Design the sequence.
């Protein structure tokens, strides 16, 4: 044994625990090491508190400590009679006698033979002693609660903007607000569970992270994770689904109505004071139309696309869809080929995933096939749209306008074609043809809270041996 302890019988205090209530406490020496951080004036006997100090940390701690030892290691508690009629308590477990609080006596030698057994019901009949014992128990649980637990690392908590504390019930939780890509490998090195959002999780960052068993993408899209590599390592990868469906549907129509009814123009007209100075009760500076009776074309009829279809139907619109995967769905909406959907839709709303079939799908060639006067919305994935081609389509009058919440690169670079378009049209009505929001369709508070709860449910299901929302093979 490399460490020399100060308590009586430490050399022989190697008995195993009979309780697993305190992980990491394998011997009385382990317990002593932790108690050095817990013993305090409060846990000291009231009659001795005035004499207690950090230099005499075991003073007045004997009975509450001895019964805690008995909880963990079993055996009996005995007492050495002291002047004044009090008993100093110590432990005997399977013939091993030790006294974790003997340091308080300095050089005085106590006799640990032929002493009467002590019983907790007698000692704890004093309420103050029972409360001190309960204090030690609580503090010991706090100090040992993370021992042996899984390490859970949340890499980008700011992406959700809400607490991930819910995950702490499953292990030792470490949360980072933001993780630069060059810090990912370091931060996940000892993790069992990793919760990313946009950080790239591939072999280069995982090769030294041999403890990883589960990756829970805190988003629906998981193209930032090398699924093949995770599969080869036996790492389960899950994503979060459905948490933002209603939120994205809501924002889809917020963008559509803003673009369709020229809300920016009309709001600015009132705010500028021009409305207040005119004689008419109304103003019709920009032409707009009813949605009722118009065709709403959806690219990607997943869960979000279907809810968008339901709402569009409530507006009295004719809903059609295009499936890039070629899938046919049992829905009351007509499926069209891509070119037919472009040519006949007044509104085109993209809700498709990003894959080899959808990347760059909406390019200049596609926009040339769109119905003149129609508008385009993208709430799927940014790289589905070639942004330079979209700007050109608006400039050339191929479409009446567009509204985007996702981009080829995020955050949207200041020199992107979209930002250059807005800059070039800052003083004319061209700016009304493009509505941009910062990838926030998914982000009402309720949806962000659901996201964290969904990650928690994925961890719980995995621990129960019934993983959910799995994207690995």
Sequence:
């Amino acid at each position: 044994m490399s460490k020399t302890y100060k308590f009586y019988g430490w050399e022989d205090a190697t008995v195993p625990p009979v309780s697993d209530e305190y992980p990491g406490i394998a011997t009385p020496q382990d317990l002593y090491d932790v108690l050095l951080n817990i013993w305090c004036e409060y846990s000291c006997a009231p009659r001795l508190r005035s004499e207690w100090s950090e230099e005499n940390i075991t003073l007045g701690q004997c009975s509450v400590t001895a019964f805690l030892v008995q909880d963990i290691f079993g055996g009996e508690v005995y007492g050495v009679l002291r002047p004044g009629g009090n008993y100093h308590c110590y432990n005997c477990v399977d013939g091993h006698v030790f006294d974790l609080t003997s340091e308080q006596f300095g050089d005085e030698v106590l006799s640990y033979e032929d002493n009467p057994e002590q019983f907790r019901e007698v000692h704890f009949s004093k309420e103050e002693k029972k409360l001190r014992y309960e204090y030690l128990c609580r503090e010991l649980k706090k100090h040992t609660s993370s021992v042996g637990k899984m390490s859970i690392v949340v890499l980008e908590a700011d992406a959700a903007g809400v607490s991930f504390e819910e995950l702490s019930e499953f292990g030792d939780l470490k949360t980072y607000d933001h993780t630069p890509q060059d810090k990912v490998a370091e931060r996940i090195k000892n993790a069992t569970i990793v919760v990313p959002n946009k950080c790239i999780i591939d072999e280069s960052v995982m090769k030294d992270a041999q403890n990883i068993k589960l990756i829970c993408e805190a988003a629906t899209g998981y193209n930032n994770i090398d699924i093949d590599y995770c599969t080869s390592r036996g790492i389960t990868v899950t994503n979060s689904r459905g948490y933002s469906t209603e939120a994205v549907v809501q924002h889809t129509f917020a963008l559509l109505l803003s673009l369709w009814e020229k809300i920016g123009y009309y709001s600015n007209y009132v705010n500028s004071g021009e409305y207040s100075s005119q004689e008419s009760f109304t103003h019709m500076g920009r032409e707009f139309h009813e949605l009722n009776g118009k065709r709403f074309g959806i690219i990607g009829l997943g869960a979000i696309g279907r809810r968008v279809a339901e709402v569009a139907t409530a507006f009295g619109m004719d809903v059609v869809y295009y499936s890039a995967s070629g899938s046919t769905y049992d829905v009351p909406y007509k499926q069209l080929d891509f070119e037919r959907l472009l040519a006949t839709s007044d509104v085109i709303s993209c809700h498709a995933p990003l894959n080899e079939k959808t990347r760059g799908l909406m390019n200049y060639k596609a926009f040339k096939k769109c119905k003149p006067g129609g508008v385009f919305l993208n709430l799927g994935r940014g790289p589905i749209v070639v942004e330079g081609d979209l700007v050109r389509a608006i400039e050339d009058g191929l479409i009446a306008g567009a509204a985007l919440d996702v981009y080829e690169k995020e955050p949207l670079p200041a020199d992107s074609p979209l930002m250059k378009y807005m800059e070039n049209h800052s003083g004319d009505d061209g700016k009304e043809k493009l509505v941009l929001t910062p990838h926030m369709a998914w982000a009402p508070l309720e949806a962000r809270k659901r996201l964290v709860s969904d990650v928690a449910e994925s961890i719980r299901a995995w621990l129960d041996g019934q993983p959910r929302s799995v994207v690995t093979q």
Observations:
- DSSP finds 16 helices and 16 strands in the chain.
